[in-house]
Specification:
By secondary structure, the chain is an all-alpha fold. It contains two helices and no strands. The longest helix is centred in the first third of the chain and has 30 residues. The two termini are 46 Å apart. Component of the ER membrane protein complex (EMC).
Length: 106
């Protein structure tokens, strides 16, 4: 996981540097009064490399997926916190009319 995270940071730095290099290149073109047609090839290569690093990091860095099946052994029972001071059950939802057809059927 650590290597994927570092590769992601490197990819982000490469993308930021490619953007900065493109802005500088456009500034130079304005000084020499030429029209901007496309960024230089080294910036395009840097963009593609940064994109590849970011995609690789996005696929390699996340943790293990957890099961969403209700019968799975990995699922744990979620309980209420022991401190109920911040639990609010009096909210604006009581303003809406309660239709009998929307209630859960038992």
């Amino acid at each position: 996981m650590r290597v994927g995270f570092m590769v992601g940071i490197l990819g982000g730095i490469l993308l930021a540097h490619a953007g900065y290099a493109t802005i500088q290149y456009r500034g130079v073109l304005k000084i020499v009064e030429e029209e901007f047609s496309r960024p230089p090839m080294n910036v395009v290569v840097e963009l593609l490399l940064g994109l590849a690093f970011c995609i690789w990091a996005a696929l390699a860095a996340p943790a293990k997926f957890r099961s969403i099946h209700p019968d799975s052994e990995e699922n744990r029972i979620v309980s209420l916190p022991s401190n109920l001071d911040f639990m609010i059950f009096n909210h604006r939802g009581k303003v809406f009319p309660c239709n009998a057809e929307y209630k859960l059927k038992k």
